[in-house]
């Protein structure tokens, strides 16, 4: 899990340290994907990137996040 403390400057270097067994990155936000472009740029095409977001101040339930992870992993891992 990469959880930036600040968004400027964006912590791009940490993306080069991702475990080689990692098959993809799921960007999970309480927004419409404002940080998704930053993740895509920092990832630099190394891994597939997915997105799961909620808006309106609605905090996703842990079960929703797990479901998003499983759906993403089913698409990425073959």
Characterise the protein shown here:
With 78 residues, the protein is an alpha+beta fold. It has one domain (19-76). The protein is 29% helix and 13% strand. The protein has two helices and two strands. It has helices at residues 36-43, 62-76, and strands spanning 25-29, 49-53. Strands 1-2 form a two-stranded parallel sheet. Strand 1 (25-29), helix 1 (36-43) and strand 2 (49-53) form a beta-alpha-beta unit. The two termini are 22 Å apart. The model has no long low-confidence stretch (mean pLDDT 89).
Task: For this entry, give a set of tags.
29% helix, 78 residues
Q: In percent, how much strand structure appears in the residues?
A: 5-15%
Give the number of DSSP strands: 2
Spell out the helices and strands N to C: EHEH
Query: Over all CA atoms, what is the radius of gyration?
Result: 13 Å
Strands side by side in the biggest sheet: 1-2
Alpha-carbon distance between the two ends: 22 Å
How many domains? The number is 1
Molecular shape = globular
Secondary structure tally, helices: 2
What percent of the residues sit in helical stretches (DSSP H or I)?
A: 25-40%
* Helix/strand/pairing category: alpha+beta
Q: How would you describe the oligomerization state of the chains in this entry?
A: single chain
Mean pLDDT over the residues: 89
Q: Main sheet?
A: 2 strands, parallel
Low-pLDDT windows of residues: none
